[in-house]
Amino acid sequence: MQVKRTELVESVQIVADADRLTSRAGTAVLAGLADRVGLAGALAQAMVGVRQRRSRHDPGRTLCDLAVMLADGGDCLADLSALRDQPALFGEVASDATAWRALAALDPQRLVAVRQARAKARAHVWELAGAPRRVVLDLDATLITAHSDKEQAAGNYKHGFGFHPLLCYEAETDEARAGVLRPGNAGANTAADHVAVLDLALAQLPEGAVGPGLLVRADSGGATHAFLDHVVERGFRFSVGFDLTEPVREAILAVPEQAWRPALTQAGEQREGAAVAELALDLEGNGWPAGTRAICRRERPHPGAQLSFTDDNGYRFQVFITNQQGRRIERLEQLHRQHAVVEDRIRCGKDTGLRNLPFRAFAANTAWLELVLCAQDLLAWTQRLLLSGELARCEPKRLRYRLLHVAGRLTRHARRLRLHLPRGWAWGNELVEAFARLRALPQAP
């Protein structure tokens, strides 16, 4: 077999003589949106008093640039050069040393101010895009590998080494609400951590958005008495996974066949091979909140799946507990299963600077985590406010390829800067429309 040889290097003359080119034409949308929704201004207010002397770069503006850099795909402080090298689009961007000083200034008190800045910008976004029909908060933990000896990095239950942060996302808007950085050996079901993350997430909600219909979802790590008691005390609903202990298995086997009802797909249709039933468990008698009920799902596993010796009649069983009421248990189970979207959000977070925490100091990595959440918010807000169709739903990698990292040419005409996009780029019109929608947004007060 003869492989056809490419002649690109031999036949194309390559010279470095083009002026005013940019490889980040679409990333300017992120920077512009941060200004328009008030995030940049709110961060500047949060960092008032940090500068001990007059300097060129406002620390709040520098934090905003770091968030834009992370949304753009950067994963370390040095990647800020992607913005710094293009001042025509992003203005004067701080050096790595200056950015480090701004990041190092985020002590616990400053982190509170940064979170308040995020909440202020979020309130303006919700005014423009509308609030979710029902606020659903998804909590989940993830493992982050540390490839060197970093402060508070530790071994985890999967025999790795690193950190074990706990995160919270809003299901409908894909917004990153809150997160706490924890050592790798932190427990998956630590109630105090779940309470702390939930309270941080609630503080991010605009005034009036917190209502009794708010739903908190988690896997079995959230099934602790202290955490669910806290959810109920706040007046909310919960839906969390539940371990298959021996009493639970006995309750499953005691369910008569006629009590199983067809499960639903996410489209609301009956799912073949899956059914749900409510279990007869005395949950209140065992200290769970009043009104708690256990619902079980059984289904035929996919080919090749490993069954445990306790699985009955070839079915796989999953149980969750909830204090939601209503007779349509299949709808409650469908709603609980949607908790799986949090895995997508965490994956996107790891593609937005969370895959590797870059610093040795735990406090600096905590600040980095907050900026990662801020960057995810910027991407979610851009998709909600400025994009439509598939671009409003795609994940960061595809969004960067199609819009953010498109090349352009900068020219000046009549004292105005003009950005020229490739004529044949398939998503050029979508990017032009995104800039037009950005200009039409009202400036945050």
Could you walk me through the main structural features you see in this protein, from its secondary elements to its overall organization?
This protein is of the alpha+beta class and 445 residues long. The chain has a domain at 19-109 and 357-440. 39% of the residues lie in helices and 16% in strands. The chain is built from 16 helices and 15 strands. The strands form 3 sheets. It has a 9-stranded mixed β-sheet with strand order 7-6-2-8-9-13-12-11-10, with helices on both faces. A 3-stranded antiparallel β-sheet has the order 1-14-15, with no helix packed on it. Strands 3-5-4 form a 3-stranded antiparallel β-sheet, with no helix packed on it. The longest helix is centred in the C-terminal third of the chain and has 25 residues, at 362-386. The chain starts with 7 loop residues before the first helix and ends in a 5-residue tail after the last helix. 39% of the residues are buried. The model has no long low-confidence stretch (mean pLDDT 91). This is Transposase DDE domain.
